[in-house]
Amino acid sequence: MAPYFLRNLIPRREKREEGLPLLTVLAGLNFVQWGHFWTGWLAWTCDAIDFFSVSLSVSRLQTQFGQPTTAISTAITLTLLFRSAGAVIFGVLSDRYGRKWPLIFNLLLVAVLELGSGFVQTFHQFLGVRSLFGIAMGGIWGLAASTALENLPVEVRGLASGVLQQGYAVGYLLAAVINLTLVPETAETWRSLFWTASGISAFAAVIRFFLPESEVFIRAKAAERARGGSTSKKTRIFVHETWVMLKRHWLLCIYAVLLMTGFNFLSHGSQDLYPTYLTSSKGFTSHNATVATIIGNCGAIAGGAIAGWLSQYIGRRLTIMIFVLLIGAFIPLWILPTGFGALAAGAFCIQFGVQGAWGVIPIQLAEMSPPAFRATFPGVAYQLGNMVSSASAQIEATGASHLHTTIIGSDGKPKVVPDYATVQGILIGVVAAFVLVVTLIGPEHHGSHFEKHKAAFEEGAGRDEIEESYVESASRPASLRVVDEKRSSSDEAAV
């Protein structure tokens, strides 16, 4: 018999999506379902623009505040450290009260703090605002992912997961384009990047305002009103069910944090100081470093969409493992060349692997989560992993400051520079091996109908009970409801 961690590595045939082609399912989506998905995607894109505004401005921030790279990277570390607090605060609000208003408030808070980042005058002010900013940013991912995925049919959630997660790469891409075009043309330089990012986040909040609450919460709140549940009673139930969930799933919580620690080291270790690596260790101009960053994010977008789609057919864990192996294969191309073309190709390939694996994470965490806590559980696991990996930029900056290499400068003379290439290659190689092992031994609930379970303020939610009064949305095509009914009957027979 196969070991436990190898069982169901490829989903059993009866668990795979059956019947209708992907395009048919996509054609059956209504305007609200599309709206929920794209507003979640936009919120996550804003998160990336806001976060990478610092990474893309390291050299200008050094000049502005008279600080070395290691000091500027402290701002990145503090942002990542405080994101866990935001994940808890906004995740609890979302699972208790709904997806709409917590996400709107979260986006507006991000917009205000990003705007403030562009007005600071001292380095300590900058660190303080970025710390507060981390709390605001921490809530975005859990709320965005739950909003985007829970209103879609099971058949398209793999592809949707990949596209959603690469909102992060699109955000990095947009920030890089703004940094390449707007920033050099304005007297405020780096500040204009932060102000533009603030405006985009405010725009995302306005878009979410015009869309209705998630269907799952509309249904759950209607059921509670029919039962005569009061606000105070629902809050007591929520607290009780949260405690039940933690006692029931504490081991799963630890596993999810370990998984997200590895993934966040992969992401931040390959992205946060990448422009600095190209300018400091390879001698590129800031312009060429930004162009290479844009090329890398094109690879990320392609990898995330492909991996998300592939996971719908071969499973979540197997897809992650394949793309993590690709990361290991592409590390030499990422760090060894000296020419722009080869290094840009390395950036494309490494981000194809990193963000391809990441593309499966939103749906993997959503399906793995206790169903009633799809905003809190994934969001907190994600941001606790961020907290553990928050020092990745400082690790790389410190390591490179103690490890040097020699390059030929623009004047044709040898020049001793920090060796970011070796440091990043070692870090990403070790972390990729860790992620491979953790993914292999973990659970997978491929094709889970988590939208049929109770909301967190309903009795039994902490025990993952299914809502008996569940009624399929009238907007869902009848042909898809038949597919779900067949799958439910099959699952019941198997049990």
From TrEMBL:
Keyword match Membrane: yes
Topological category with respect to the lipid bilayer: Multi-pass membrane protein
Pfam families named among the record's database cross-references: MFS_1
InterPro entries with a match to the protein in the record: MFS, MFS_dom, MFS_trans_sf
Region Disordered, residue ranges: 466-495
Database matches in PROSITE patterns: MFS (PS50850)
Domain Major facilitator superfamily (MFS) profile: start-end pairs: 36-446
GO cellular component assignments: plasma membrane
Transmembrane helix recorded as keyword: yes
Any single GO BP term: plasma membrane lactate transport
Basic and acidic residues: bias regions: 482-495
Cellular location(s): Membrane
Keyword set, alphabetical order: Membrane, Transmembrane, Transmembrane helix
GO molecular function: secondary active monocarboxylate transmembrane transporter activity
Segments crossing the lipid bilayer: 20-44, 71-93, 105-123, 129-149, 193-211, 250-269, 289-311, 318-336, 420-442
Protein name: Carboxylic acid transporter
Record organism: Grifola frondosa (Maitake)
